[in-house]
Every structure is written in structure tokens, then in C-alpha cells.
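This entry is passed on directly below:
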Amino acid sequence: MVSGIQLIGILFGLFMIYMVYVRVKRKEFTIKEGLFWLFSWAIFLFVSIWPTSLNLISWNVLKIGRTMDLIIIFGFIFLAAIVFYIYTLVRINQREIDSLIRNLAIDKAKIKKQKKEGAE
């Protein structure tokens, strides 16, 4: 029997898979990104449908008493990795913007200098 929280998890997982499909179709995600997110949401769906499937990992392998603790730990690890990746992208974009602004300022100064020399 599917509980209420499982139903919410299943509906949310299916909605997110649809959103991944839409993003790939609009070419907002690359195929690699789409596959990564599709795989992530498929795992989410699997765990939502069969939550006891994690008992083997949490109890026997990692010696974690409650399965919910395992899910929370994996969630923190996943969020930390995503935040690090986003931070890296922001830093790269910041450097590119700084370089672009610097080059535009240099070009503007050269144009002003040429106009000043041409007026004399």
C-alpha cells in the first residue's frame, strides 16, 4: 500500500523527470546534464516507491541505524557537491566578466585618446 508521503514523492519525482525532459527539449540542458538529472530523479522515484530498499545499505554496509539518517547524509553530500559546482561556475563567469569589462575599458580609453589626438 502506498502511503501519502510516498504518493507525494512519486508525483514530485515524475514532475521533475518531466521538467528535465522539457529542459533537454528546449536545449537548456545538454544531454549529459539531462542524463545526470534523469538518473537522479529515477533514483528518487525508486526510493519513494521502495523505501525499504535502502535498509540493506544503511544497516549492513554503513552501520547507520535509521534509513532516514542515510537519506539525510546523502542529501547533504549531494547539496554540498552542487553548491561547489555552482560556486565554481560563478567564479569562472566572474573572471570572464572582469576580463570583458577590463578590455572594454581599455578600448574606450584608446578611442578617447584617438579622438583627442585627432582634434589637435
